[in-house]
Write a structure and sequence with these properties.
The radius of gyration is 30 Å and the shape is elongated. The chain is built from three helices and ten strands; from the N terminus they run H-H-E-E-E-H-E-E-E-E-E-E-E. With 174 residues, the chain is of the alpha+beta class. The strands form three sheets. The protein has a four-stranded antiparallel β-sheet with strand order 5-6-7-8, with no helix packed on it. A three-stranded antiparallel β-sheet has the order 1-10-9, with no helix packed on it.
Length: 174
């Protein structure tokens, strides 16, 4: 004897339909809360690496650009600036660091540093000061052509952002 399954009733249909509508309604209510946890497009774009073409930058020029909302200086150093930076007396510096550690090997002419004074975050002026690097007019910090602190209240050198050479004339910051 085979037992027969009862036939679906109108009540069964209403129970299933109500459950389906409730599930869709719950998903619709939860979706805005889940989607608001993802970063917006501007935030994602701000953290993306920045490619910069070095070809138009002339010798002795300092170019300013922004990466992740922070100012970056890209300096095309002259042969004399490189020579002076490499010959500097590290013993007389507050934050001694050889020039070779602040540039990429074989690309000594390109210096890439964050563009804010390490004292209070002011923006120093390029090609100024006793060492013709940067001078912060707010409190008198003086940086050399390698971005190292030489005089004034700044405690450390201008930091170097993460960057790499993509080609001979292009860098990627980030």
């Amino acid at each position: 004897m085979a037992t027969m399954a009862p036939e679906p009733t109108r009540r069964d249909f209403l129970f299933i339909a109500t459950g389906a509508v409730g599930a869709v309604g719950l998903a619709s209510a939860i979706w805005p809360f889940v989607s608001q946890m993802a970063p917006d497009a501007a935030t994602v774009a701000a953290g993306a690496p920045v490619d910069f073409d070095l070809a138009p930058v002339t010798e002795g020029q300092i170019v300013k650009l922004f990466w992740r909302g922070k100012l970056i200086f890209v300096r095309h150093r002259t042969a004399q600036e490189i020579k002076d930076a490499q010959a500097a007396d590290l013993g007389s510096m507050r934050d001694p660091e050889p020039d070779q550690k602040r540039v990429k090997s074989g690309k000594d002419q390109w210096l890439v540093v964050y563009g804010n004074c390490t004292h209070l975050g002011c923006v120093p002026l390029g090609n100024e000061g006793a060492y013709k690097g940067w001078f912060c007019p707010c409190h008198g910090s003086v940086f050399d052509t390698s971005g190292r602190i030489r005089q004034g209240p700044a405690p450390t050198n201008l930091p170097i952002p993460p960057f790499e050479f993509v080609s001979d004339t292009k860098i990627r910051i980030g």
